[in-house]
Amino acid sequence: MKQATLHQLKVFEAAARHSSFTRAAEELFLTQPTVSMQIKQLTKSVGLPLFEQVGKRLYLTEAGRELFATCRQIFENIAQYEMKVADLKGLKQGQLRLAVITTAKYFIPRLLGPFCELYPGIDISLQVTNHEQILERMSQNLDDLYIMSQVPDNMDVTCEPFLENPLIVFAPINHPLSKEKNIPIQRLSNQPFIMREPGSGTRRAVQSLFEEQGVTVKVKLELGSNEAIKQAIAGGLGISVLSRHTLLSDVSDFSILDVQHFPIQRNWYMVYPAGKQLSIVARAYYDYLLAAARNFVDQNVDTTSNMLEPLNGSNNS
Questions:
Q1: Could you please report the per-residue DSSP string of 88-157?
Q2: What is the DSSP letter of 181?
Q3: Which among 276, 281, 285 has a CA at the least distance from the CA of 142?
Q4: Quick one: average pLDDT of 131-140?
């Protein structure tokens, strides 16, 4: 490895991450022959094959997997050093890698904007996905921080609640139950229900409550996004349970049903693997989000207060 260069390691890391020389070349703005040549020279330095091709698929060898993990550590350390130097200069520069649950897309961008204005030298990488994919990314330590509403109980993590995330019952604007108060939860069993896909944290929370109360609902549709569910509700296909934060942009399009045991009280959490040393940039965003979330609640509480007024007085028994 004495003759390996940092450039060769960057080329290898991109090829390993994409399992493709072509995609690595596109990302790095290189030609594919250049990528192949750099990998060939690095392989010679290592003295063992780094890739093997089976059919049309490219796979890492054992030596390749070890080098891939080493590359990630090297580039992480370099990034940390660059951020530390920037911090010593009184600047905040570097990259913030966030992975968030799909529902968080309704408010996280609003909280990212002011942060980017405050620290223009910071680049943001934002991944939006479901609960299971978040756990997969966390197990691989691919991001700095994870925004989620259900903290994993089978992983050793550090977590901090920063914002309430109540789950409420959405219905079409003129739904027959929209005028009623303190609706028994058992009456939901007579309604066509729209459910999030398996693996969704919202779905797990809803199913847990229904099982606890002995309620079986008629699942008419399973959809993989909140936007699709909202469109289905607006089209009169049924009712569903979603985060209150999904209402921020279109309050007037739905009814909120005053059902017993709702809202389901949950929180948004900032999560990262236990023992992980947050970068200077990640720590800056962590501290910023704790303060910004309070202002966000104050600014948006009036948006849904009229629709949620019945819920504030409902008995959750």
A1: HTT---EEEEEEEEGGGGGTHHHHHHHHHHH-TTEEEEEEEE-HHHHHHHHHTT--SEEEESS--SSS-E
A2: S
A3: 276
A4: 90
Produce one character per residue of 214-236: b if its CB has 16 or more CB atoms within 10 Å, e if not. ebebeeeeebeebeebbebbeee
Q: Whose CA is closest to 167, among 130, 198, 204? A: 204
Cβ neighbours of residue 304 closer than 8 Å, sequence gap 6 or more: 244, 247, 248, 251
In what helix (H) or strand (E) does residue 172 lie, and over which residues does it extend?
A: strand 167-172
Phi, psi of 124 (to 5 degrees): -110, 130
The answer to whether 172 and 233 have CB atoms below 8 angstroms apart is yes
pLDDT tens column, 36-79: 999 999 999 999 999 998 888 899 999 999 999 999 888 888 88
- The highest-confidence range among 166-175, 249-258, 304-313, by mean pLDDT, is 166-175
Q: Coil, strand, or helix at residue 268?
A: strand
Name residues whose C-beta falls within 8 Å of residue 96's C-beta, 6 or more positions apart in sequence: 122, 123, 124, 125, 144, 145, 281, 282, 285
- CA–CA distance from 182 to each of 164, 177, 187, 257 (Å)? 22, 10, 11, 9
279, two tokens: 């970068």
Is the Cβ–Cβ distance between 268 and 162 less than 8 Å?
yes
